[in-house]
Structures are given as structure tokens and as C-alpha cells.
Amino acid sequence: QKEVEQNSGPLSVPEGAIASLNCTYSDRGSQSFFWYRQYSGKSPELIMFIYSNGDKEDGRFTAQLNKASQYVSLLIRDSQPSDSATYLCAVRLEAGNMLTFGGGTRLMVKP
Amino acid sequence: GAGVSQSPSNKVTEKGKDVELRCDPISGHTALYWYRQRLGQGLEFLIYFQGNSAPDKSGLPSDRFSAERTGESVSTLTIQRTQQEDSAVYLCASSLGAAYYEQYFGPGTRLTVT
Q: Average pLDDT of A2-24?
């Protein structure tokens, strides 16, 4: 079983819609959770991080964390074609410093 | 300010040769990480440096892989006797400190072993 799992996609949504990206993790010791966006051929860039159960909003992005269900999600409101990219979920254990990444979900926003 | 830089951006090498990849972290960042990303895959952790502490080498896939860092500056990742399965993008990241700090990624080095 992979430690961090994501649906590889592609997830296709029309422009202006809400894109919902999901991630599950296996280690209950995971303490912090990150969403990175990676455009094709580019390095990952951090979108959001979340530590506590509940929702965290930043502009069009909302991260949701449910530690009991070991589930973290990213919602993108008013999706734009420029949001088309691969979204990587990453988790960090309490005692560790490295990030464990999922395989990423490819998002396609169609005009 | 300057971000994380890596060199070379691309490297093609023959199977069996040694390669050295370089990472320059953001000035003042004490933590430095190396990750590997195979085509269409997520990132795999390789090694982590924090200040002058002993590095966390738990992600290195074999003894052909090694890395060094002098103080809080440049790091080099060396792959000896390269194999075709080593072909990947090697990404370096740095952060202000250990836990709870954002990791900033460099542009990566694309390694192709022929």
C-alpha cells in the first residue's frame, strides 16, 4: 500500500467550475499536509499547507483535512485554464522532515 | 531574491559512468533536500541535510548514491556507475529550518542514462 495515494486522473472540469482533488495517507503519525502544483517540465510550487482538522482557505483554494479519515483535499473554485497542471499531495510525519509525495493528479480545465 | 539553483539542467550520460549534480540553496536556508522524480511519478525523497547535523540518508536507493554538503551551502549528489533506471529528474529543495517550514524547489536536473 502506497503511503500517499492520489487518483492520477486526468480530472477534467470546465472553466469556472470547482475542481476537487483528493488524497489519502496511511501513516496516522502524519502531522502536516501540503499541496504542490507542478506544470509540465517545471518544478513543484507550494499552493497551501494545513496542519489542523477542518478547512483552510486562500483565495480560490481551500484545503480540507480530516485526520480521523486520513484524508486531505484541495478545492479550486472558479477554475481557470491556467490551473491546468499536476497537483501533488505531500505529507510530513511528526518525527521526520522530508515530505512523502503522492503520485499526483493531473487537472485539465477546459475553456 | 535568488531561488534554489541546480546544475546542470540536463545531463546525458552512458551507463556505467559517474555523474555529479549540484544544488545551490537559498541563502540562509539551513535545510536542504534531494528528491527524485521519475517520468509521470511523484517525488521520492533521497537525502536531507540540516545544518551541521548528520544527514538523513534513509531515502538513498543504493550505495551508488551519495551526497555531500559543506556547512549550509552548496550540495552535490553523486551517482556512481549509473544505470538506466537512474534516469529521472533530480530535484533539490531548501527551507529555513527543519519541520514546519516551506520547502522551495529548484528547477531540477534531468538525467538520462543511455
A: 94
